[in-house]
Amino acid sequence: MFEKVLIANRGEIALRIHRACREMGIKTVAIHSTADANAMHVKLADEAVCIGPATARDSYLNKAAIISAAIMTGADAIHPGYGFLSENAEFAEMVRAHGITFIGPEPEMIRLMGDKISAKKAAVEAGLPVIPGSDGEIKTSADAVTFANRIGYPVIVKATAGGGGKGMKVAHSESELVEAFELARKEAQNAFGNPAVYLEKYLQTPRHIEIQVLADNYGNIVHLGERDCSLQRNHQKILEETPSPALNPEQREQIGSVVVQAMKKLGYTNVGTVEFLYENGQFYFLEMNTRIQVEHPITEAVTGIDIVRDQIRISSGSVLGYRQEDIRFNGCAMDCRINAENPDTFLPQAGTIGQWHTPGGLDVRVDSEMYAGYTVPPYYDSLIAKLIVHGRTRNGVLMRLRRSLEEFVIEGIPTTIPVHQRIISNPEFIDGQYNIHWLENFLKKDKQNL
Ligand code: ADP
After folding, report:
1. HEC profile for 105-152?
2. How close is the Cα of 57 to the center of ligand 1, in Å?
3. Which residue in the list 185, 291, 365, 394 is annotated as catalytic?
4. Residue 165 pLDDT > 80, yes or no?
């Protein structure tokens, strides 16, 4: 097992990783920018190294500074968390070249899944169902039109290097497509330095359902069921739940085993999430995230498995230690992402926290780095807390979530708690009747009623 892990991240996930290491008797090294010197995980870690100024490019994305910090402190592994360098194959290779373990899959796997065209090809070869679309890059708008006529409108133009919803444009007709094609290429060039785009059929009422996998280095692979992440705003997840209200246990087992077989074929190791769009009983592969995800705690709540702990164990060469048939899914869980944002405009807002009181009680978990008197810096993602609630029934979870949101006190900065309160009291949401467009429509209607 590792003796010392460097946590190459910030915010709640840095604390989450610190907690897992602590419970495993592993020493931790925090790295931080000048803006994060007062962060909770920096105070709790055994050692802390300031690696640069506030701008992420100069600190949390500064590969050389992070690896130097690991060498200086004698860390034997680096946990990248999510975001930042977590899906950067070059960083994973550099870490490895310095004799340090990168807590994640092989760099080749990160690279394969990081490009949407190669990921989709790999998914097809591994037997996963994909969204009908072009086999590879589409180079001209004329080719795009020919292809769209073959598969039918609406279509979506997507950047092969895409991420965070950038370089994606929907088209309902030939004239829209010509415009969307040029726009998407430009956006992709600006955001990723790579203008390549491809075409897919645009699904109109899908849900976003993803499958969590865990795989050791010896061919032992399990899935931990699904998460329904259909509640999105600007392609950003807001509230996630498991199990999905749209799946029954047989469907879960079926898609789970398809994913496990595919991961075996690919030779995938470590933690990963395979994301699908789900419409009319069909799953369509969207992408694979080769890292721990923000919403992983709801899966931990229903399975009782500490995913970060097992990720660290697997990375150090340990055997997974359990099989698919050992995994039980108990009850339901939901996660509310609480952001430091104006709840009406969603504009991020930095500031100093006054009172800070988190809800508690049975089956209530809050993952957050915040405390009273802490100043939220303006430079990073606005996520300040995740409220994770577990219960035996979905109804019980909704009741518990309602009282937990009521108990949560955050003074000094605006938060999205009121948005969550409105979502969970909506009858359609209570019925589980939603798809990936539901939240944006709900917010529009909600605004008109205010
Ligand atoms: P990114 O990597 O930029 O997040 P994804 O491929 O994961 O892009 O897609 C993000 C979101 O965009 C999905 O969750 C879904 O809401 C929407 N989307 C992507 N492809 C399609 C499609 N073919 N049809 C309908 N919606 C899509």
Report:
1. CCHHHHHHHHCHHHHHHHHHHCCCCECCECCCCCCCHHHHHHHHHHHC
2. 26
3. 291
4. no
